[in-house]
Structure formats: C-alpha cells, structure tokens
Predict the 3D structure of the following.
Amino acid sequence: NLTSGDGYITDVTNASRTMLVDLETQQWSPELLEDLAIPAYILPEIVPSSGELSRTSGDLLGAEVPISGIAGDQQAALFGQCCFSPGDAKNTYGTGSFLLMNTGQRPRRSRHRLLTTIAWQRDDQTTYALEGSIFVSGSAVQWLRDGLHLFEDASDVEALAASVPSSDGVTFVPALTGLGAPHWDPTARGAILGITRGTTAAHIARATLEAIALQVRDVINAMAADSGIPLRSLRVDGGAARNNLLMQIQADLLGVPVVRPHNVETTATGAAYLAGLGCELWQSEADLEALWEIDRTFEPSGDSAALREIQERWDEAVTRSLRWDTSPPPG
C-alpha cells in the first residue's frame, strides 16, 4: 500500500479512481500529487457513487439525461450482490477471480497484502472494502481447453472433473501469469504436482477446479484476518459461478455456504442499482434486497480429513511455485 500521512492509498489496479485518493479524506492526496508531479487541475471532480452527478449534453442524446450512478466494476458487483453489511463478501469468477468484503464505514489497513478501497459513497456516508485479485481462474480452464486440448468447450470441465471422486493427489497451481493476492509474486510459475501413471485428464480437470477454489480460500483467510470478521457466507457471480461442482468444492473448502443468485451478471446490476437510487427509482437498500433472488445455496460437506489434506498439499505446492522464474526482466 502507498502511504500518505495518516491515510493510505490503495487499489492501484484502478488508478484513475483511487490510487491518488487519500482514503481518509476522500480527496486527491496533495502529497502524492506533489511526489508524482501531477497538477490537481487535470484531475476530475470526486463525486459520490449515487445521486444526480451530472447530465449528458442535450445535443448528444436529444435530451439532458441525468447521470446518477458511478462505480468500478468490482465495487458495482459488491453492490449488486446486496453486500450492504460489514463482513458481507462476494467473489466474481471470470478469467480471474475478484473478491471484495464490505468492512463498514472506516478503512481497514491490510496486513496480509490485500487492497483497501472505497466500495461506494452515498447519502454522505462512505463504505469501504477489502479487495483481493486472483490472476487466473477461468483462464486456467481455457488453458486446459486450448493448451492441453482436454475438451472442446470450457463448460465440459464440470462433467470431466465430476467423473472422478477426487483429484487423486494431483495439485495444480495455476500461476500461469504469476500469482496475485495475497502472494503478489510475478515470478511464480504454474505447477502440476502429484502426477502418477494413474493420473488422467479428469484428475487434472478436478485439480483445476480445486485450485480456483483454493485461491479464493487464501484471499478469504487474509480478509478474515485483516477485518476480524469471520466469513458467514460467500455470494458468487460471474460465468464460472454456473459450475455446480466448482461451487460445491468452494463451499467445502471455505466451510460456509456459497450463495448463487439467479442473476450472475451482478456488475451491471450494481451499476443499475446505484443509478436507480440516485434518480429515486428505488428509495433504499431494503428495496434492492427485495429484488435479490437466490438460485442455489451450496452447503459445505465432505470429509474433513480429505479437505485438510487437499489444503496442506496446496500450501506446499504454492510454496514451491513462488520465485520460480529468476531470469532478469526484459530490457
């Protein structure tokens, strides 16, 4: 995290939004602007996430249309999942995975290499979150399809992985582009360990789903340690959230329910919710909670000893994959 006086600046993946913002004052940080030689006048006005923020030009759309909502994609997904209370958390399963946990009305400094960010600001109140970005989730399945040619369609991974009762000791660390949170190691490289003559494509497919869920477990553990709030449940969205086997593995490894809504495209939903509140289409967050519908809840189950063995193998495999590429950077 970048520090600025008593405040601190994070979320460098969305630099235009919060990298230069002091999270305590929610204004552009004079210290950082000076350090980076950025004149304040070129930066946009900081506005709330919801309300009548501006209007479009009448010449552009034929009328002055109010702009009443603004949010980053993952913050919008958190809002779209109705994660309105401290400790509420969501994960978006896409090419990568993106976890956010609502931490309430004060920023929490992460001591486990997560990002601290503003989730949203409305009604003169700011809600903060912890964020963890995982580089490779769905793209690991794409690699099995395109690189190893284990199946023709990414959705086929579920049936292939379900054809065996376990990964039979195989562990896959999908550090195909390094590892993101909470490791932040660009030199980590992918590893498939535990292969024997009995290993099949199905075991590798199942190990891949386990790896996606285990990466999420690592970030959730870091969030619980930073926030002091144990996870009660995990709300899920994104394309891979439709994979029932993955969601069950996730619930088993976290030991809490995994809740999938009917609508898994919650980024767009959250943006619409913020705009709707801003133009008074809805009056309160309670109105939005009434719209949020559960498709399925995956309750944790499984053999605790087997789950513990999977986690121990994973922790050891991650340790082996770290700092693997020691070649000097190009240039």
About this structure: Residues 1-17 have pLDDT under 50 and may be disordered. The chain has eleven helices and 15 strands.
